[in-house]
């Protein structure tokens, strides 16, 4: 039986407030917040990492009328609505599906965020921020005293559950993790590696990064754990789905569409 649902704009207002959508700086292509409207009601929510054609088609198949994603529709800037892009928007309009995107606001949220949720999944307790961008810390950091091999084993177990694999910049046998940091997604960069060195981080858990970050990490004896962009950014949208169910009594589902990266 279909629920009475909720106003799309009440749901959006709640998300904007909780995630501080318009207060958190982000990259230009993110376009955080409501990206596509529907006719004004929400009865079922789907969440996904990416606003891909596959996720839009799957959202339609589940009967969702709101799709919440981490990576939205506009990363490539203004583009002609032809081919796959046309097909995506046609499905959204024909099936009356709204799209809400949250990139850095979701990454850094203290309880719903990708970084906080990944730390919790790995049994790590943050005590500081990490990955400074403008006025914000995107990631988290904390203290430990455990075998790096044991920590990497937990990361590998987690990543495998989302279709991912793990590699490290240096061998982990015999290493001890005393200070760790997490920055999900494309979290390895010259800037985050420099920050890690400045803050005494010995183990940096990320989704991915360019080749030069591995070279740089080896040179500075930093263990970077590459756990997959997709795998490290699945938890935030799921947390948002559960949060909206509690607040609005709206059923939700997570659309698992691993990318292999």
Automatic annotation (TrEMBL):
Instruction: Give the matching PANTHER family.
Output: GTP CYCLOHYDROLASE 1 TYPE 2 HOMOLOG, NGG1 INTERACTING FACTOR 3
Q: Which Gene3D superfamilies does the entry link to?
A: NIF3 (NGG1p interacting factor 3)-like
GO terms for cellular component:
cytoplasm
Q: Spell out the molecular function terms from Gene Ontology.
A: metal ion binding
Q: Binding residues for a divalent metal cation, per the UniProt record?
A: 70-71, 107, 229, 233
Query: What keywords appear on the UniProt entry?
Result: Metal-binding
Q: Which organism is it from?
A: Gemmatimonas aurantiaca
- Please report the name of this protein according to its UniProt entry: GTP cyclohydrolase 1 type 2 homolog
Against Pfam families, the record matches this protein to: DUF34_NIF3
Xref: InterPro entries: DUF34/NIF3, DUF34/NIF3_sf
UniProt xrefs under NCBIfam families: YbgI_SA1388
On assembly, the entry states: Homohexamer.
Q: Which SUPFAM superfamilies match?
A: NIF3 (NGG1p interacting factor 3)-like
Per the record, the similarity remark reads: Belongs to the GTP cyclohydrolase I type 2/NIF3 family.
């Amino acid at each position: 039986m279909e629920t009475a649902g909720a106003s799309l704009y009440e749901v959006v207002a709640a998300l904007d407030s909780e995630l501080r959508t318009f207060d958190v700086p982000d990259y230009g292509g993110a376009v955080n917040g409501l990206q596509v409207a529907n006719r004004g009601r929400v009865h079922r929510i789907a969440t996904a990492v990416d606003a891909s054609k596959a996720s839009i088609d799957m959202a339609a198949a589940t009967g969702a009328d709101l799709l919440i994603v981490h990576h939205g529709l506009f990363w490539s800037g203004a583009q002609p609505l032809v081919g796959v892009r046309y097909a995506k928007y046609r499905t959204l309009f024909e099936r009356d599906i709204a799209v809400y995107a949250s990139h850095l606001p979701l990454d850094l949220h203290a309880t719903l965020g990708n970084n906080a949720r990944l730390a919790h999944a790995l049994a790590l307790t943050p005590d500081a921020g990490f990955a400074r961008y403008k006025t914000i810390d995107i990631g988290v950091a904390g203290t430990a005293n455990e075998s790096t091999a044991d920590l990497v084993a937990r990361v590998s177990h987690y990543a495998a559950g989302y279709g991912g694999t793990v590699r490290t910049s240096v061998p982990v046998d015999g290493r001890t993790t005393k200070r760790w940091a997490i920055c999900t997604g494309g979290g390895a960069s010259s800037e985050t590696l420099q920050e890690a060195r400045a803050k005494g981080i010995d183990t940096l858990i990320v989704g991915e990064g360019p080749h030069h970050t591995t070279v740089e990490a080896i040179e500075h004896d930093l263990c970077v754990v590459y756990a997959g962009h997709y795998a490290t950014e699945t938890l935030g949208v799921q947390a948002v789905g559960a949060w909206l169910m509690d607040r609005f009594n709206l059923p939700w589902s997570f659309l698992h569409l691993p990318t292999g990266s």
